[in-house]
Amino acid sequence: MSERSAAVVTGSSRGLGRSFAMALARDGYAVVVNGTDPDAAAETVRLIEGAGGTAVCRVGSLVDPDFCGRLVDTCVDAFGRIDLLVNNAGLTRDRSVVKMTAAEWDEVLAVHLRGTWACSAAAARAMRGRGGHILSVTSGAGLFGMFGQANYAAAKAGIVGLNRVLEMELGKFGIRCNVLYPVARTRMTAVFADAAAAVGHEATFPPPETVAPVVSYLASPAAAHLHGQVISFDGRRLSVWSHPAPTATWTRELGAWRPEDFAAALTAEVMQLPHPDSWGRGVIAG
């Protein structure tokens, strides 16, 4: 980059977010590191600076929309601009639907979905004069569900829907918006590896640093043609996910549909099967 670009990476005090922040710093971005653990956030900054990069940290929770605005302000104040927002922060409160509490539901939705909205809105206001990129992180739970993660799945599916609207509304300002579904070994995925092992299955996750290169590419000028996409990457397999579309359609005159018409159309043959990666059914208990 001839001129230093600047990025905010939420939830970058450890795990995937830290790897994303470090990869962007290596690419020449000045990075705002964010997390709720001051020591872990400071460690990410030290690692970036030790590798010759530039970073500052802003500790706080995305549950507070005002903090999301201040997080973006930190980037603009420190580096004069914001070119990239990576909405990565998250947490899990796993429990089956019938046992989940309202507090567990609300906390996960507040961090993942409301935080993504609030940070994206703040970044968009700062980017409108020059353009930029908003990259939001979803998961397999959001795309095809996961047992014991109703709150997390709803939030992550909501991020995909939110991105469609961001793309519609912000494209005219030169702001492109994409979604990334990364697969890596983190504290949040450890529960699946442990639970799968408990029932005789194996679930392996690659190191975060092997997944981070996709963020570097998506943030680069070479990816300027990509917008409104959902992209997954696990260090080996790269996929682009389709937008929702009908798999079968029938038409009758308005008011002409009878019960037997529905029965003739909606047979067992038209049922859509779960995604083959949706292996977690019955694994998470409690």
TrEMBL record:
Stored InterPro entries: NAD(P)-bd_dom_sf (IPR036291), Peroxisomal_Beta-Oxidation (IPR051687), SDR_fam (IPR002347)
EC nos: 1.1.1.-
Molecular function via GO: oxidoreductase activity
Pfam families attached to this UniProt entry: adh_short (PF00106)
SUPFAM superfamilies for this protein: NAD(P)-binding Rossmann-fold domains
Keywords recorded for this protein, A-Z: Oxidoreductase
Enzyme class at the top of the EC tree: oxidoreductase
Stated family: Belongs to the short-chain dehydrogenases/reductases (SDR) family.
Entries under PANTHER family matching the protein: DEHYDROGENASES, SHORT CHAIN, SCP2 DOMAIN-CONTAINING PROTEIN
Protein name, UniProt field: SDR family NAD(P)-dependent oxidoreductase
